[in-house]
Write a structure and sequence with these properties.
about 400 residues; Enolase-like, domain 1; TIM Barrel; six-stranded parallel sheet
Length: about 400
């Protein structure tokens, strides 16, 4: 079997553009993967197209060989967008390999450890603030304007069966509430990365509102990304101890610094979602820097992500996927979570644009706060190209 073509397809996802890879073969099998753009001014799509020129003619069933060969060509510029481009091709290859053998992708890694995967509602409330026009004007959602609205969303999460939810800091000291800057988007003051006590107090109030609405059994997570230096994370983590968080999620390119934060607080620490490959994960695991190591299977590729999870398992460390994308991403993450023994919980964007589920021939099934692990061959779904064509990307995306 040979790869005959690799295309990128795009569609309107509301406040974002949905991005897919379509891999064709000389035997008629088609493989799919999802990837995402928009985090930088550079394009993963262009990287995929460049790597496609190399991958065409290769056997897609030789997933590891293709992945390692393409990554080897990036050694002078490894990580980042180059790794993400390879990952998109790797994941499409896995879809074809599963279909060729008539098995779901998780069977390629020894079979599923679990048939259902617990999920949490990510960016609960915070994205409805960040993308207020989309949620309020297009989807008709109630606005998020006060702490009472966070309590309402906490109740909604509990009613939908979620056992955990994650939010980002939202501040109310302007005309309209606004989501914090995670330290990687250009904006006034984004390089300072130093939080004040008043802001910490506001975050605590926000989390307490979610707790009031969701109830005592809901796991509450806070994601502050790259927003602080070590000192700021330390002050925040210590103040949050009284809340009994499920985890504090933070990012910093300093294994010793993250390890120091973890040792200095009783608040569990999750991190590492921005890393690529086992070599970047290794120093954090050696330092016992995190309670939960977060791995992005769309940025790393599922084959490479399972290798990271195996390494983490040797250090008795849990794994959770970074999964802030669409429904094919949900299926890909579910296969990854089912394939590893040291899984913790899976990220899920619960309030995506509803029409994006039509992009899949077999959308995900979410029941009682769990995603059902697919049993159909490959990822368990193809992409409906007619549905993509009916929702072309918006010119502003």
């Amino acid at each position: 079997m040979k790869i005959t073509g690799i295309e990128t397809l795009h569609a309107d996802g509301g406040y974002r553009t949905c991005c897919y890879v379509k891999m064709s073969t000389d035997e008629g099998l088609v493989g799919w993967s999802e990837y995402y753009e928009g985090l930088t001014g550079a394009s993963v799509t262009n990287v995929i197209r460049d790597f496609a020129k190399v991958a065409v003619g290769m056997d897609p069933r030789q997933v590891g060989r293709i992945s390692e060969s393409l990554l080897a060509s990036t050694r002078l510029s490894q990580g980042g967008l180059t790794h993400q481009g390879v990952a998109a091709i790797e994941n499409a290859c896995l879809d074809i390999q599963g279909k060729a053998q008539g098995v779901p992708v998780h069977a390629l890694f020894g079979g599923a450890f679990r048939e259902r995967v617990p999920v949490y509602w990510t960016h609960c409330g915070s994205y409805r603030v960040r993308h207020a026009d989309f949620y309020e004007k297009e989807l008709g959602c109630e606005p998020v304007r006060t702490l009472d609205d966070f309590a309402r969303l906490g109740r909604e999460a509990a009613e939908q069966g979620f056992t955990a939810l994650k939010t980002n800091p939202v501040f109310f000291d302007a005309d309209r509430p606004y989501m914090f800057n995670g330290g990687f988007r250009i904006a006034p003051g984004f390089l300072d990365r130093s939080i004040g006590d008043a802001r910490i107090g506001g975050i605590i109030e926000q989390l307490q509102a979610l707790r009031d609405g969701a109830g005592p059994d809901m796991g509450i997570m806070l994601d502050v990304s790259f927003s602080q230096r070590t000192e700021g994370y330390l002050r925040l983590a210590r103040r949050l101890e009284e809340l009994g968080l499920y985890w504090l999620e933070l990012d910093m390119r300093d294994p010793e610094g993250v390890a120091m934060i973890r040792r200095s607080t009783g608040t569990p620490v999750a991190s590492l979602e921005s890393l690529h490959g086992i070599h970047e994960y290794r120093p954090y695991l050696v330092e016992r820097a995190v309670d939960t190591a977060i791995v992005d299977p769309l940025w790393n590729g599922v084959w490479q992500s399972v290798r990271v999870a195996t390494l983490a398992d040797a250090f008795e460390t849990h794994i959770a996927p970074h999964n802030p994308v669409g429904d094919l991403g949900n299926l890909i993450s579910a296969h990854f979570c089912a394939s590893i023994p040291n899984f913790r919980i899976m990220e899920l964007r619960a309030d995506e644009a509803p029409w994006t589920r039509d992009f899949l021939t077999h959308p995900s099934t979410i029941e009682n706060g769990e995603i059902v692990v697919p049993t159909r061959p490959g990822w368990g779904s193809d992409i409906n190209e007619d549905a993509l064509a009916a929702h072309p990307p918006r010119a502003s995306r």
